[in-house]
Amino acid sequence: MPHTEQSQPIRQLLAGIKGFRARYYERRPDSMRQLVTEGQHPEILMIGCSDSRVDPALLTQAEPGELFVVRNVANLVPPYQPDGSYHGTSAAIEYAVRVLGVSHVIVLGHAQCGGIQGLIRLRTGQKTDDDFVSPWVSIAGSALDPYINGADGTERSQADAERLQQQPDVVERAAVRTSVDNLMTFPFVRERVEAGTLSLHGWWFDLEDGELWAIDPKTRLFEPV
Amino acid sequence: MPHTEQSQPIRQLLAGIKGFRARYYERRPDSMRQLVTEGQHPEILMIGCSDSRVDPALLTQAEPGELFVVRNVANLVPPYQPDGSYHGTSAAIEYAVRVLGVSHVIVLGHAQCGGIQGLIRLRTGQKTDDDFVSPWVSIAGSALDPYINGADGTERSQADAERLQQQPDVVERAAVRTSVDNLMTFPFVRERVEAGTLSLHGWWFDLEDGELWAIDPKTRLFEPV
Amino acid sequence: MPHTEQSQPIRQLLAGIKGFRARYYERRPDSMRQLVTEGQHPEILMIGCSDSRVDPALLTQAEPGELFVVRNVANLVPPYQPDGSYHGTSAAIEYAVRVLGVSHVIVLGHAQCGGIQGLIRLRTGQKTDDDFVSPWVSIAGSALDPYINGADGTERSQADAERLQQQPDVVERAAVRTSVDNLMTFPFVRERVEAGTLSLHGWWFDLEDGELWAIDPKTRLFEPV
Amino acid sequence: MPHTEQSQPIRQLLAGIKGFRARYYERRPDSMRQLVTEGQHPEILMIGCSDSRVDPALLTQAEPGELFVVRNVANLVPPYQPDGSYHGTSAAIEYAVRVLGVSHVIVLGHAQCGGIQGLIRLRTGQKTDDDFVSPWVSIAGSALDPYINGADGTERSQADAERLQQQPDVVERAAVRTSVDNLMTFPFVRERVEAGTLSLHGWWFDLEDGELWAIDPKTRLFEPV
Questions:
Q1: Per the annotation, does D51 bind a ligand?
Q2: Percentage of chain C surpassing pLDDT 90?
Q3: Residues of chain D contacting residue B27, judged by C-beta atoms under 8 Å apart
Q4: From the CB of residue A22, how many other CB atoms can be counted at a distance below 10 Å?
Q5: Is the dihedral of CA A20, A23, A28, A29 positive or negative?
């Protein structure tokens, strides 16, 4: 496929891959060889958002082989639902925990999450018009219960909506907590957590100032790290 | 949350985030500020595998803000199925195409894909024992049709299995083709592709030698880039 | 020149340059173009050691164009001596200050400096056997005066040598101070410092724990930054 | 020293060092520890220019510990002159070859070299007004002999100047050749080259297109690598 016919963003990605090959295959040939011959052995599953500004590998300065990564809208974990239909996030959790045997699962939320904005609109009774985003983000719907006075009247939900849109970080962090809770509904997760061989972490990255917050396992509250 | 109580892999991730903050918020303060004040405007949606060795941002040397990323087992795109249940990958595609208005969608497959190994076992009649991985990878099941002589007899499927396990890259590339085809079942994708404002790409990264292969839009065959 | 005939370390450097070209000329074409068309405009002259472990660009996460760099053994600045012979470090200082008009000159010392080890041996009367290193490091010879009880007897200088070799960081920092003082012997430096358009900095990097120390302009003592 | 009192370029360097510490001391603690406990063992001495755009470590994607580096104006090596005065570049060559035992010495020139511009002005009889740059770059003066018709008349040298200023890359490469020749005047270099344990390389980096040129050891001509 001739390189020159490509549009600019694609040409730049191809140049990036050329640089990756120079760096990891030629400059430091040992760095990839072991990952190829021995396979991957990551210790960490990170469930992050698709948002282009919060890339798990860039954010944590990871090298190839370190992080097994799921990325979806709003870094959500659905509850355990083994009904034979397509569950991409659940499949990745199962693969990471049962096949790769990771020791840590991290749910990584972040500020300014568009998916959580959608959830706020949805839960405060605003009109939505999409096929998949609203059903998907409704996974974290119950996270808003403490913050919603009721959807029984237009006035009230309007007030809720305004208030929540002014503090979306509260919802973003509540949604991370829900996802961590949902992780515990997977039997193969719960067993290993109870056996002490798997740790669950809830993180929230404040895009505005670069601070990381994490759930304190004792108080279950988010605290700056 | 005291830093020192954390285990080694987590401490290292936290150190990585500290380095990210030093680099992107203090060393080059302009680099994140714009992404925070103006929001994200990625031109590319990349659908990659959760495999720790094939990180889209590392592989393409991307900076924050460049790639909107979905990662799931075997970089699969399910068919359009707007039934109100949880479809994480479809939600991300919808968000990228309809809300962010990306210009390119890239499905990025790779060599040595564990999910595709699972698909080969599944399609050649071997016993599987999982809740989510097998149903999930069956999305690409039809990709194997041309390579399976039939699952009607144990002998035959055994031969198929052996043959396919010796050339998994054929299946990996066929699965990328299936995912690209499935993208076209989404009305909001098809419309924009037909209007010429959205391009679909099928890539396969050969982990063993660092070469990238891409679907030639004319022949629909994979060629080295 | 065929790539394949080269020995391994050279092949790896060439691969690194290939990666640089992919990254800076193709992946981010704007990053070098401006430096090529408009020339360099660094604000900083850094005078560092040749030591492979203390690279100014890596240490400060600099991009091309940011630092004008001199590197010599023990990051020394000789006194102003315009005698028409070859003065490499002085030429670079002159070029940076008079032609490029930098705003800052930083002398960057570091722990475990082999050149300073040589200076300690030299100043404590130990035998040296070299053509250039001893004369060169003697630039900072006076830096040791406060720490040497006298070179008049073997016993005494032996004691000095042992003591100094146990705390070479004292000498390393004193040598940085001498180099900063020597900078002020250059008329074109002194004038701009006195005019307030040029700042001089003395830094010392503790290789062992990664801490940076800097001369406090008021007390002239090194303090952790 | 309070961080906040510093000017912007210095604050950014300090942030870079903070990032370096996070990356090399905390994120990958093994990467520096060995260099601290075992000392440096670089295989390569690189003699590069002080120019901010051609940083040896960035250009070759080196990690700490890989390159012992001299940087001066125009990447020059003076001839062997063991007269007891200050010879910074010669001291570094001596340290690299005799103490560290490097296997390769690379002289790295580049396009758009300000020092070489100065040399062209100097050798074509133009007025210069500096203390150190002109004497220093005169090291490579003989490199211009084949390109200068004579400095005996104003007209002729004017024509030479115009011609050379239009093709400075010829002079830049000739100067690299002179520096490589000068390396052979150091007895400790010559001995090891003749014994086959040390290799000398002359490189020239074309800043404009990112191509590297190298002296072909057989023809002594520069060829693209």
A1: yes
A2: 80
A3: 12, 15-16, 19
A4: 23
A5: positive
Selected residue of D61, D212, D225 to mutate for chain A interface (largest A Cβ count, 10 A)? D61
B58 near C CB under 8 A: no
Task: Kindly state the helix (H) or strand (E) to which residue B33 belongs, with its residue range.
Answer: helix B29-38
Quick one: what percent of chain C has pLDDT higher than 70? Answer: 94
Tell me the residue ranges of DSSP E strands in chain C: 44-49, 67-72, 104-110, 199-206, 211-215, 222-224
Topology of B40-224 in CATH? Beta-carbonic Anhydrase; Chain A (3.40.1050)
pLDDT tens digits, A70-87: 999 999 999 999 999 999
Candidates C26, C28, C31, C61, partner chain A, best to mutate (most A CBs within 10 A): C26
- For C151, which DSSP code? S
| Angle subtended at Cα A85 by Cα A82 and Cα A89, rounded to the nearest 5 degrees | 70
A10 touching chain C per CB within 8 A: no
In chain D, % of residues over pLDDT 70: 94
Closest of C29, C41, C49, C95 to residue C67, by C-alpha: C41
Q: Is A4 exposed, middle or buried (0-12, 13-18, 19+ CB in 10 A)?
A: exposed
Positions of CATH 3.40.1050.10 in chain C: 40-224
Q: In what order do the strands lie in the sheet with B211-215?
A: A222-224, A211-215, A199-206, A104-110, A44-49, A67-72, B67-72, B44-49, B104-110, B199-206, B211-215, B222-224
Q: Are D113 and D168 in contact (CB under 8 A)?
A: yes
Contact check, Cβ <8 Å, D22/B26 = no
Q: Which residue intervals of chain A bear CATH 3.40.1050.10?
A: 41-224
Q: How far is CA D73 from the centre of its chain?
A: 7
ipTM: 0.94
Distance CA B52, CA B73 (A): 11
Residue of A nearest to D22 (CA): A61
CATH 3.30.70.100 for domain A41-224, yes or no, is: no
Structure confidence by residue, pLDDT tens digits, B184-199: 999 999 999 999 999 9
Q: pLDDT class for D42, splitting at 50, 70, 90?
A: very high
- A97 vs B contacts (CB less than 8 Å): none
Report pLDDT digits (tens) over C161-174. Answer: 778 888 899 999 99
Amino acid (1-letter code) at residue A60? T
